[in-house]
Amino acid sequence: MVTFNVTAGSYDRFMGRFSGPLAVQFARLAGVRAGQRVLDVGCGPGALTARLAELLGAGAVSAVDPSGSFVAAARARLPAADVRCGAAERLPFPDGSFDIALAQLVVHFMTDSVSGLREMARVTRPGGLVAACVWDHAGGGGPLAAFWRAVHDIDPDARDEAELAGAREGHLAELCEAAGLDHIEPASLTVSVRFTTFADWWEPYTLGVGPAGAYVTRLDQARREVLRNRCAQLLPPAPFQVTASAWCMRARA
Ligand SMILES: C[S@@+](CC[C@H](N)C(=O)[O-])C[C@H]1O[C@@H](n2cnc3c(N)ncnc32)[C@H](O)[C@@H]1O
Known about the structure:
Blueprint: H1 8-29, E1 38-41, H2 47-56, E2 61-65, H3 68-77, E3 82-85, E4 98-104, H4 113-122, E5 124-135, H5 145-154, H6 171-178, E6 182-195, H7 198-202, H8 210-218, H9 221-234, E7 240-252
Parallel strand pairs: 1-2, 1-4, 2-3, 4-5
Antiparallel strand pairs: 5-7, 6-7
Helix pairs in contact: 1-2, 5-9
The structure holds S-adenosylmethionine.
S-adenosylmethionine binds at residues 4, 15-16, 19, 41-44, 47-48, 65-67, 70, 87-89, 104-106, 109-111, 116.
């Protein structure tokens, strides 16, 4: 099980750079508009929560995450939003509370992704929308693709994130079907992030965030250096852009 026992600052430097721009597109894909009540499941420090608050006002936004440090950060960022500690598989909200429930980059970390999606449907009003997205880790289109390629060059048996739920094309739709959702519509979104130096790209990997950070944390100094050098060989000269795609789906509760 992957834990996110890291500071919000570490998360933002590692993944927040990608999830911020992704949130703008994901909220658009979900058709978020004034007057709706929405839930951000697995909100982390609040990249999508903040975008939803911009669109709807923080009072119309609820969010939930199992990580105490992330819940504290999201609450500090958006004091008027209803941010709770909890997991997707047991959402602390009554049936039909929201017009839309969204999970950005979360389904692959749920303990039971089908139960999590079913719970998202339960707390959404009948006919409301459930939306989720997961990076294209299986197709090599995610933001960490160069990192995992470098890892496999030196440690071929290392487990990456390709087999996680929703990380391959079509899998989110299969999970939604298993969760009993209707009118399932797959989509994909792409963002680009600019890195000014190689260090700007590498340093966040050393902060212990998610499976990639956990992998680096387990390496001794010498092996870490080998991995760092391999990553530098694989990436273009700085400054460079990393383009990342996420599989998405929208479905009716
Ligand atoms: C990659 S982060 C995404 C955070 C945020 N949605 C974003 O886009 O930046 C994954 C998040 O899922 C949360 N998470 C892990 N297991 C979860 C579960 N079972 N239910 C809900 N959230 C979970 C983690 O605590 C973490 O905040």
